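Table S2 (continued). Query chain:
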Amino acid sequence: MNADATTTRRPVIQAKGLVKTFGRVVGLDGVDLELYPGEVLAIIGDNGAGKSTLVKCLSGAYTPDSGELLLDGQPMTFHRPQDARAAGIETVYQSLAVSPALDIASNLYLGREERRAGILGSVFRMLDKKGMRARSKEQVLSLGITTLQSMTQSVETLSGGQRQAVAVARAAAFGSKVVILDEPTAALGVRESNQVLQLVRDLRDRGLPVILISHNMPQVFEVADRIHIQRLGKRAAVVTPATHTPNEAVAIMTGALSAV
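Corresponding output:
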C-alpha cells in the first residue's frame, strides 16, 4: 500500500488514547493506532511494551479503561472476543486454538457449525458436513494454500505450518474487516514461515487489512506496509520499511534512538 494513501483514506480500525491498567501496572498509556484498507500493519515492541495488551483490546479480550475504538468510523465497545468477531475482527493467537482431534473443515467452522437445510437441520439438528467441507476447500484454495489436500484430514496429523494455515484460513473466512495475527511464525521453520508470510500477502492482496505482531524484524520489514512501535505502554513511532532500517526500528523500540 502506498504510504501516502493513509492521509486520504479512513482507517478500518482506529484506536484513540487507549488506556489499560492492571492495578499499579500500566499496560497501555494513551495509545493511538490506525489500520487502513489493504495494508499490513506490524506491531513491534520489547517485552512489557504493551503489544499483547493492545491486541487484546482490539480483539475484545480486554476492555480499555478509557479511550475510544472506532470501526469504519463508528465507535465500538467490545466486552468479549465474541463481540469483536461479530464485528468482523478475527484473531489468530500464537497458541492457534485449533482442535487437533477434529478435521480441517470442522476446525474452520469451529463454533460456527452450519446445519443441513430443512427438517434435518431444524428438527434433527444434523450438521451440513458436506457443505462445510466444500466451502472449506474453496476458502483454502482461494488463499493459495496448496499444502492442505483433504478437508477430512485430522489436524493432529498436520505440520506446524499447516496448522497455522488452517488457523489463518479460518480467520480469513470469517474476518470480514480485520485479521490479527499474533506471532504467526514463532514456532515455524524457514520454509513454513515463508508460506505463512505469503498468506499474509495474499490476505492484503484480497483487500483484507492485517495486523501482524512479531519480534522477527526481517519478516516484519519483508511484509509490513507500516510498523507501529510500542515502548513502555505508549506508541513510540510509526515507521515504514522505506524510511527506516530494522536496526533503527529496534533502536526506537529500546529507547536508544528517538523517533523522528
